[in-house]
Amino acid sequence: MTPDIAIRVRNVTHQFGEEGETRHVRALSDTSLDVKRGELLCLIGPSGCGKSTLLNMIGGLLTPTSGTVEIAGKPVRGPLPHDIAFVFQENALFPWNTVLENILLGMLFQGVPKAEREARARRSLEAVGLADFAQHYPAQLSGGMRQRAALARALSLETDILLMDEPFGALDEQTRMVLGEDLSVLLSRARKTIVFVTHSLGEAVFLADRVAVFSARPGTIKQVIAVDEPHPRKPAFMTSDKFTALRNQLYGLLHDEIRKTMAEAT
Amino acid sequence: MAGGREQRRKWASRAVQAGFLVVLTLLWYLATTRWGVSSLLLPNPVRVVQQLGDILRSGEFVGDLKITVAELAAAFAVSSTAGVTFGYFLSRSPYLVRVFEPLLAGVYAIPIILFLPLYVLFFGLGPASKIALGATISFFPIVLNTLAGFGNVERTLVVAARSMGASDYHLFRYVLLPAALPVMLTGLRMGFTVALLSIIGSETIASLAGLGHRIVYLAESMEMPRMFAYIAFVVVIAVFLNTVVSTFEGRFRREP
Description:
The complex is a heterodimer.
Chain A: E1 5-16, E2 25-36, E3 40-44, H1 51-58, E4 66-71, E5 74-75, E6 84-87, H2 99-110, H3 114-128, H4 143-156, E7 161-165, H5 173-190, E8 193-198, H6 201-207, E9 210-214, E10 221-226, H7 241-265
Parallel strand pairs in A: 3-8, 3-9, 6-7, 7-8
Antiparallel strand pairs in A: 1-2, 1-4, 4-5, 9-10
Helix pairs in contact in A: 2-3, 2-4, 3-4, 6-7
Chain B: H1 2-33, H2 45-58, H3 61-91, H4 94-108, H5 116-123, H6 127-151, H7 155-163, H8 168-205, H9 211-220, H10 224-252
């Protein structure tokens, strides 16, 4: 057991419903994966390939039908609020609380002593550039700012692992590019282990140390591609030949899978 | 400023509402003095006001008001406790929601006041039958809204709270309750209103005391001006109580 592995996924399968039932869906099939400590791994694949399912199993929100997930050598049997924080796609902030209250509440749930909460909340708001919006309600913020707030809440929990399920999926292209850059800067400082689900090829190449490409349903990891480029990454990286080559390679891998998914749907 | 304009518009509609009432009273006055409408059907508004003054000065209303308000308080205490408790526990199980929600909604659509004779048989002519009826009628909007409130909490919020380590208590106190509160409060306000309606209504049908009873008693003894004065008094009380409840609802509904 190497100490460098933060997340170890072994032969994990997940299905909804029983075999033979009409509702039976095999979401993920015999998948294995190691995530190294401190790396950012992107999961990318056609819709319905089970990448979010895998993320939820790593986070203990779903139990695998078979196979095991281990965090720091211990098998996952439910949510691990002290090891893992989530950023969801959207609408995960409590709308009746201000941004600050949302962050404080997360720490209350996690069990942080009251005296520490305020300072940690301010620090994480500072880190995502929302210090002036502590007293705003989520409805008063733009989509991008709401996701920053959700990220601040996750950061304040000071977990080693961050799981992000298409956190910028509902945002427009420009906003997600800027947020991607900020995230890269933030992460180079925070030294966290991150698993990041995305639909966007560019986002995957720009953010990830490694990209795991999924095959169509029943999904499994088809190939893992390394992006050898230090963080924080500059916008200039996006126009480099290396970026283009990696993006094209990813597109080639995904293209057939997406065709397969679409053929199945019709 | 947009705020000033909105304010002006609000005052304008208030003025129209007040004007409407003034015109109505004027027509009422003219009908009784000029157009020869029998004072048995429609008493002179001036006499109604005199009677109202007499009722308030003499304190004659206190006994009836106490009874009606006590009935209302007892009925609402029973229905809100039962409605919120049942609603919450039913909402925890999708199976129970599937079974009971249509059932409750079905009964809600029945005019339960039809059962008043039964209630009088069971509980007598006194306040007990009014309390039982008011509690039954107001139970339904409360339980249905509580069910809807707790049943439709955004799933992502629950998952997010669990992922951060929320206990069952945390989940209830900081996620489920605030999510359900607006819908639940609407149910409580509706329950309060129908409890008031059904209690005064049933007092007019079969009772020994209370404001509704007093109004029917005056009607039967042909004391029209005094009866109208009591009706006006009840209207004011009802408006006052509903305003109190609405304000209470608005206070709890802290929305950005």
